[in-house]
Each structure stands twice: as C-alpha cells, then as structure tokens.
Amino acid sequence: MNDDTRTLRAVIADDERLMREQLRTRLGEAWPALEIVAEAKNGAEAVQLVEQHHPDVVFLDIRMPGMTGVEAARAIAQLPCGDEAADGWPGCEVVFITAYDEYAVEAFEQGAADYVLKPAERDRLARTAERIGKRIAQRAQGEGPALGGMQQLLQKLSAHMNPGGAAKLKWIQATVGQSIQMIPVEEVLFFISDEKYTRVQTATTEALIRKPIKELVEELDAELFWQIHRSTLVNVKAIAGVSRDLRGRQLVSVKGHPEKLEVSRSFTGLFKGM
Q1: How does pLDDT run across 123-141, given as a tens digit for each residue?
Q2: CA angle in degrees (0–180, nearest 5) for 266-97-147
Q3: DSSP 141
Q4: At 59, is the secondary structure helix, strand, or coil?
Q5: What is the pTM of this model?
Q6: What single DSSP character describes residue 152?
Q7: What is the DSSP string of 187-254?
C-alpha cells in the first residue's frame, strides 16, 4: 500500500443496491483505510457526487442504465482538476466493476484504469488497493498515468459496448468569416475552447465552431487527438516538441504554427520523459 497516511476517499456507483452493499463490505475488509464518502445508483449521479466530494478513487459499474460507467468516466475526466480546481483536486483514479469480458480485461491491462470482476473478491480488491495507492502517490507528485491513455481506453470500451455507435468525425463544419467551410479533421492542428466557441486551427485557417471540447473528445479519434488541457486538444501528428517555461509549465510546440499550447498538470504524464 502507499505510504501516504492520509485517509483516502471513494465514491462507488452501481445500479444494484446489493452489489453496492457487497462492494462496501468487501472494501472494508480489503482496504480498511478507504473511506466511502458517497454511493451512486447511476452514472449521472456518480459524476455529480465526484464533482461534489472530489474523491481519490471512484468505483463504477461498467454497465448501468442511462449513463454507463464508461460514459460517467468520460464526464469525470472532464471535471476541473489540478490548477483549474479551486481546491487543487488532482482528479481521481477509476476502477470499473465488470462481469467477465475478455476484451474489456485486455483493454484494462494497458494500465490506464483498474477493474474488479463481479462478484468483488477480497484478494482482487487488495491487489487493486495496492495499485491504486501507488498511482495516487504518483499523481500527488505529478507523475501519475497519462489521462490521454484513459481517453483511448474509454473510447475502445465504448466502441466495444456499442459496436453500432457513431463513426469518428472526419470533417469539421466551421465558420470562417462569413462562410461555412468543411475542414478535414486530419488538417486540424489543434482545438481551443473558450466559454462560447471552440477555435479550429489549421496551418492556413482559423475557424470557429459551437462545440465544446468535452463533446469533441468523444467524437474524435483519441489516438490522433490528445487532450492536453481541459480546453485544448492537439493533433498528435502536429506536435513538434515539448518544452518548459520559467514557471515549469509544459508547452507544446506545433508544426506549422507559432502558438505554444499549455499542458495542464493533469495531462503532464502524456509527455513523461520529454
């Protein structure tokens, strides 16, 4: 277990009351130092409770009616954290609760998130506690797993659970001056959002769309576009390099454009070793 003596806090979410009770009991046996601060009956409630309590870890049933655990995890990943959170909350680790699924288990082995098979067993939860404890300690030092890896995992799980789901965006319909243009996604260098619009930047064009980053994250290929800030997505193929400014912040240089893009603390793990 990690050496951090502070009490770690968790939210658990499952639409079945008996499963929530069982998980709470088993966690009490396998991870007695963990405090369950809230329980959710669905994904939307889980997102609300995570935003309210800022826990260290959230346990999500992967298949819940309405908003699934995967969709809830996507929404949680978009909550303000790090420098953007008033209390400096660094975000939380995600543990999915799932019935056995060979594809899902293979995806989880990438390490972006953990999983527990139903019914939750004490030994498995003890191993999960060990791993999560280490990750939380790394996160506190700014060395945790990259959230970009989490986005790719969630996209793969979503495609697996919804094989007939919407195809990834190939074109962006954007306003350029007084006209509407269709911009091929692969030509976009980066997207930056403010409160009302999202700027679409190519090597030759700057355009505006009324689509927030949190929607673009779900519609774009996570292997092509990395989120490096709550308000910024960058085309991986357009990244020229990463540097640090005098305040120690990571800045991404983009091929074919002079602007440098700030990486928020939550996403610094994407460029580990650079």
Answers
A1: 888 888 888 888 888 766 6
A2: 15
A3: T
A4: strand
A5: 0.70
A6: H
A7: GEEEEEE-SS-EEEEESS-EEEES--HHHHHHHS-TTTEEEEETTEEEEGGGEEEEEE-TT--EEEEE
